[in-house]
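Q: We require from you a single protein entry containing the residue sequence and its fold in token form, and nothing else.
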Amino acid sequence: AIADVHNAGLGDCHKALLTNYEVKANLVVPVMYRDQLWGLLIAHHCRETRQWRQYEISLMSQLATQAAIAINQGELYQQLEAANRELQELSGCDGLTKVANRYRFDWYLNQEWRRLKRQQTSLALILCDIDHFKLYNDTYGHQAGDRCLHQVAQTIRASVQRPADLVARYGGEEFAVILPDTSLEAAQKVAEKVRRQVRALGIPHAQTLYQCVTMSLGVASCIPSHEQSYEELIAAADEALYRAKATGRDRTCYRNTH
């Protein structure tokens, strides 16, 4: 508690700083929590010198203590959020749609690629994209968009019934289905079932041709080999998906990478 900054024995640099802001007296209390210093809470008196009273010092100390607690709780909350995100990634579940997340998708596709490369049997992949989803969000709002994503994800999962098949949220409004031991023809049938079931939901979408939410799907299949990587399978499914969107949407296109 400094009553007069010019007669408090401060260093020249410190005194010059306070003089520059016309400070005549100041009160400084530490913002501390459990011996951790977060910063300083400072009151400046610029009109004249001031003899700080005990109740003023106590009040500032209480404010500093409350600020320190709030900052510490904020820090703990951020740490908890980070831990929860990491746990969610490790658990492999997308929080919004309740299907597998991208972390789980990458891990599972890599595992199945290696397994089926040894067995020399087909691996199929479906990439699905909700048509005009940005327009849906713009028209109905992001909360409705979240509900739509959840409904579509659960519909895809209900359409894919074998235990070894994996439905994942690939990113944004895009989903992926990994189908081990599945030919291109069989994968096309699954994709068409998904497309029909999503359209049958009848989720209103005034900005589309059919006035309801639809999906475009790209299908690819191959027998994994040492000459290929699973990234090529993803690229083939993505190319088929692009073709489905470019030729009118609400349809399934395919590409065989054999």
In short: The chain has a mean pLDDT of 93. The beta strands are 25-33, 36-45, 123-130, 166-171, 174-180, 215-222, 252-256.
